[in-house]
Amino acid sequence: RTVSQQVGLEMVMETDLWEMPRDQVIVKRDIKLGNGVYGEVFKGVIIGKAPIEEVYKTAFFAHQYDDCECAVKMLHSYAEANSRAEFLQEIGFMKELGFHPNIANMLGCITVSTPMCLLLEYAHYGDMARFLRERKDRVTTAPRLSSPAERAASNDDSVSIKDLLSFCWQISDGMEYLTELGFVHRDLAARNVLVDKAMNAMIGDFGLCRKADNVAFTSKAGRLPIKWMAIESLKSYQFSTKSDVWSFGVLMFEIFSMGMVPYIDVPQTEMLSYLCAGKRLPRPKNASLDIYDIMQSCWKERAADRPSFNSLRERLARHLEDAT
Ligand code: ADE
């Protein structure tokens, strides 16, 4: 390798605004947030300015991420080459993603030394499936207090139907954004949505995410989320924005049932014949007929008959306006 090539490489690394020094991150190894396929997620703190502020240098970002909490997704230092490649691919996607309020945004990363780290916005309430299950006996029809501060002050830990609608709307907004950028998520499910302190829903886990033009999706069979998959994905591993819409319908079922496991009585191996027979998930008790109609529209057998995320978002917005 010549000197000039080496200098070139260093320049590339230096100009990657996302990279951060390891000593700027405190990893709280005693607070484990999750287990990834190729590593672990811990709670952490970023000292000083997070790289995201440099990357999106606008007034909006001015002081938002100083000394902030974060989630540190860490790759085992002994990870195999293909896990490492997938981890770097996920970081690459996060860089392309840009900022959206309903995505667990990347705050920075460490890839020039091991263990490699992906730092994400911290979500106080953790994953949505658990959030809902813990509150399944505390659903109210009254709209919740407006501000998170008011809520904290009154120790109000209930969830209103309007909150559930708002979660759905926020996720549809984030998915519309992802779709516009040409991404197919492929693993949209309540376990992969996070809830932050202000009750914002944030789409997380881009481990299975792909560019829509990259249709040659091959995946280790064991990792596929069978009960969230569209008919055509189960039949022939076809994934698209429309199969994400199917998963969104299942996610709406999870939300309105307060975290019920979909098709609890159906073995995974029987899912395809179950769906081909025209059977679908039932209406959760918190869902009105029209909300259930939205879910069902996501489960049309023909992908082309399913709505777009844009029309889902608009339809949900109308419900949100009506909900008092
Ligand atoms: N678990 C996985 N990612 C997380 C995050 N960003 N915040 C909180 N818990 C998480």
TrEMBL record:
Binding site for Mg(2+): N192, D205
Domain of life the protein comes from: Eukaryota
Keyword check for Nucleotide-binding: yes
Gene Ontology terms, MF aspect: ATP binding; metal ion binding; transmembrane receptor protein tyrosine kinase activity
Start and end residues of each Protein kinase domain: 27-324
Keywords: ATP-binding, Kinase, Magnesium, Membrane, Metal-binding, Nucleotide-binding, Transferase, Transmembrane, Transmembrane helix, Tyrosine-protein kinase
Catalytic center residues: D187 (proton acceptor)
GO cellular component entries: plasma membrane; receptor complex
List of residues binding ATP: 34-41, 73, 121-127, 191
Any one GO biological process: cell surface receptor protein tyrosine kinase signaling pathway
Record flagged with keyword Glycosyltransferase: no
Protein name (record): Protein kinase domain-containing protein
Lineage: Eukaryota, Metazoa, Ecdysozoa, Nematoda, Chromadorea
Span within the parent record: 133 to 456 of 481
